[in-house]
């Protein structure tokens, strides 16, 4: 008998899980599925890659299938990529019951989304910004189904409850039924159990509230996988790109699946052009890319067509990229929790992994705050046997990379100018049409 069956999961869902090669529940799934099925609100904390989507997806789908109507549940998540990934898992789990999903994310035509939302899909999966846009502009006939939702999920709750999403999240929750007995059931899941998330435990003390089930599995300091080697490199900032290229080209790293994290989209775009010019198999993922390119980049990296993914923190949370062997922080993250999420992309499911943070003299305080947050000192990067990284940079790569960087900046500027010219031509054409009328 399946362990999922002992949690009260219906046979059709057990079969769907088995078809996805999921046979035994992870600790967060074993802890949360039964209380959610019993109608409790839930705050679930578990490190990235632990199966949180299944932990809330299974009880939502089981409850929906027993009494299907209109829009049953809304799942709110901070990024488009996470929304797409959650939609994929819900689609696979709910296929035997004819589940209909509506995905509300940026980069997609709003009119198409509004038409789909108006048909009362079973599950809405959305980013707060795009859902708020629909609430403000799509009309009551389109959004009225949201007012009868039975279950609401905040995925990556620590980030969702930050100031970044405050206004949009308030707009979204304002149109949904209130919490409490007879109202919606609320589920919060996170890899980082912040004080803001923990304070929500107090919800159950309010009159008319459901009991809140709180589960923490491998959160906070344990969010750093035990099989992860954490290292730092202290270098001169003017040579960062040369050190990065040399590091990627060492015998020990030249075949590794690698994510390089930057703090800014402009930096990610520049590195993409430089590394392409240096003949690395590389792609990029950041918020300035069109949605189609973001999806394509992620798929290329997952399929190993690209060995290297240059990304901002868009890629640091929740994405299922199981084959990453090396994470490089080209920029030191300003928030220690962002560091935890970044390095959590590797050393998943008990596998070994390595994270190398490139730092300058001004980054010492940031590294110290990361070490205080994780409870572990970063080790100094040591050269591979027979390889002097600094020697190779000085003798072989500094001049080459500097030239490629100069060319990359020219290419980026030319691209911007061409886009600007194209925009002006379209504007002039539109003005000409108006004049003829």
From TrEMBL:
Residues 243-389 form the Helicase C-terminal domain. Residues 411-437 are annotated as: Disordered. Keywords: ATP-binding, Helicase, Hydrolase, Nucleotide-binding, Nucleus, Ribosome biogenesis, RNA-binding. Residues 411-428 have a biased composition (Basic and acidic residues). It is found in: Nucleus. Coiled coil: none annotated. Its main location: nucleus. Pfam families: DEAD, Helicase_C. GO terms for cellular component: cytosol; nucleus. One of its GO terms (molecular function) is ATP binding. Residues 33-211 form the Helicase ATP-binding domain. Residues 2-30 form the DEAD-box RNA helicase Q domain. SUPFAM superfamilies: P-loop containing nucleoside triphosphate hydrolases. It comes from the Eukaryota. GO terms for biological process: gene expression; ribosome biogenesis. A motif (Q motif) lies at residues 2-30. Belongs to the DEAD box helicase family. PANTHER family: ATP-DEPENDENT RNA HELICASE, ATP-DEPENDENT RNA HELICASE RHLE-RELATED. This is Similar to ATP-dependent RNA helicase DBP8 acc. no. Q4I662. It comes from Pyronema omphalodes (strain CBS 100304).
